[in-house]
Amino acid sequence: MGLISTLKKSRGYYFFPIIAFVLSLLTLKERQPVLLIVLILLCIRILCLKRKEIFILTCCLLVSSLFFFHLFESKEKNAVSENTELKVYPDTIKLDGDLLSFKAKDSSTRQTMLVKYRLQDEKEKAYFSSNWRTLVIQGEFEEQEVEGVRNLNGFDYAHYLEITNISKQIKLIHIQSMKQEKIPWYQLNWKLKELRRACIVHNQKQFGLLTQNYMNSLLFGFQDNTPENYQQTWKKLGVAHLFSLSGMHIYFFLTLFDYILLRLSICRDKVFKLNLLFTFILVSLTGMGPGMVRAGLQHVIKRLNQRFEWILSPLDCWSLALFINCLFSPYVLLTVGGQLTYYLTFLIIVILPIIEKIENVFYQGIFFNMLLSTLSLPLIWYYFYEWNLLSFIVNLILGPVLFIVIMPLLLLSFLTSFVLINNHFIWLEKILILFQSIGNKTNELTLFKQVVGKLPFWLLIMLILSQIFILIEWEKRNSWLNRKIIVLGSLTLLVPFSKYLNPFGTLAIVDIGQGDSIFLQLPFHQGNYLLDTGGVLGFEVEEWQKRSDKRSADYTVIPYLKSMGVKELDTVFISHAHEDHFGDLDRIGESIDVKSICYGPGSYEQSNFRKCLALSQFKRTRKKAITNQDRWQKHGINLNCLYPTETGDGQNNDSLVMMLTIKEKRILLTGDLEKEGENDLMNQEDINLKADILKAGHHGSNTSSQPDFLEKISPKIAIISCGKNNRYNHPSKETLDNFGEISTKVYRTDLNGMIYFKWSLFSNYFSEAFVMK
């Protein structure tokens, strides 16, 4: 029975009212006009059904959504008091070097908080890493400001905490008292959290690094300091969903559980009851992620439907699972995991009747995989900005390997690890290393990687509605050879190439904290350039204090570049050889191809910079030292190097100084140039320093931007790139006063976040500064 026939009959009774309820919640929360339009269209569709019972249920749910939204949003977020006592969720404990993080419940307000604490010594780290009991902590706390979006298309961390019901993030400064709380047997939820934590700790002690990460991820839904290649390899191939616990995994466990019970000759009535209990335990032990909760709820409703003959359709079961989930997590569909798990299972329900018409089982599997992968592309594009053409093939091969080979091996190894010593599992580590290396080699085939860029929200909704329309037409015509299907399908597949139709260029000063990174993209995607990459100077610490290799670029520059559809950078300019200007060059090179790197000749004299250029990711990259004799011109954009004039030392006063001309606008980029370099620049003959926009030198320090230099430039706008609450107190009051004296408007990344400009290829339009804050 397909989507149309399902909705025409009494089965499918709950689909429209529940979708209206969820859309109402999301519209109230997000204030998105597109969501409101879709909700209105849905209500019109419900009226057209002319079914009184569905109309009444829809009205009741819409009214209840208003009360439910008000109830959820009116919860007070009380400040942390001096006597705050936190009850730690044991299975949320994560360690990263000397950083400890966990979720905890405030005993007085009952609010859930995210807590971070810097461990004092190795002994304290050992205690937390081995502890699986519920802890109650009293101490000195400091509430931390949670940042929203600071870069265009960036991750909204504050919004994420809000929709996942975490009231605030706090810093634990000092532990005054800590004790283990004995959990009574009837608090099953806390008991299961302790059991999950005990299993995670056991795996970390018993197995090799790769084995423990696969095991904790696939059996318990837990990731802690996962090796970089394990996380990124499968994500880049577009099959990361296979390594995140979802309905496929719960189906694996429940099928195995039922098989064991039936083999033990347990009657079906008891199997039914035990199955429901096991589902609850399984969802709890696997971390209660959106995918597992959805799968668990849908499975329970399906079993109850079979047992009590409720005559619910698969779409009804799906709808009721979504409704129940929203009662506890109203904004589950605002999370990436929630959207993927519910949308993909909805698609499975819809396309199964189409697939069943194919007689050959083998072709059924191939066609199902390709169709589901294709239909999931809009969400993949919207959130991850890229996809890999090989994902269809990898998905087809990897799925069976994972569930037929890897998962059983992991489960068997876990169960036997309580009686065997860890030396017996070296073979499993070797198998996973081989498995991982195959993924790494496949990932090196960059020819198949496509970076789409960030889709507008309205386009995402249009694509999803188009897909549903295509499936309805397909079912009506009983064939995909239909003009409407072909046209809509072709338009969907043309979306990745829409970036080549954008007539606007972008100049962005990326907020990377204390450092510099400036991005230039030409109209119609005709060129992508980066001036400096940002980076952080590392400090020597003891072995136990070393944290995972996460860089500023992983959260700032790289996601932004991919959101702009950047697959490769034509040129990366490095102003000088300081870590806050080139430190993340290696990480960017791992994610995005770099065709050429340009730098001052003095920078190459610095050994740390030379080592970076010699890395494998830059083996095919052209490298060139440039001076004031170098010029570039492309599509009406002029970029002239004004400084240095000779080989220097690669330090601040040896920074590249570039004059960028876009339309009639002149933008002067000065790196970390200080007063000495500014004087050298002013003393050059036949050089015009007049500029409309100045990127101030050395993050607004008082060692740069002297009055004489600023008068020579006479900028209307000055941009200072510096970190929020940085240790150097940049920018200095003296520098700000200097800009004030010449009536220059100052934008700062520490206050304004990313600052960017847009211009048009076909007119003299050059925008005012856009800011994120």
TrEMBL record:
GO biological process terms, semicolon-separated: establishment of competence for transformation
Source superkingdom: Bacteria
Entry-linked CDD domains: ComA-like_MBL-fold (cd07731)
Membrane topology note: Multi-pass membrane protein
Stored Pfam families: Competence, Lactamase_B
Keyword hit for Transmembrane: yes
Transmembrane feature ranges: 12-28, 34-49, 54-72, 239-262, 274-293, 340-355, 361-384, 396-421, 455-474
Protein name as catalogued: DNA internalization-related competence protein ComEC/Rec2
The organism of origin for this protein: Vagococcus carniphilus
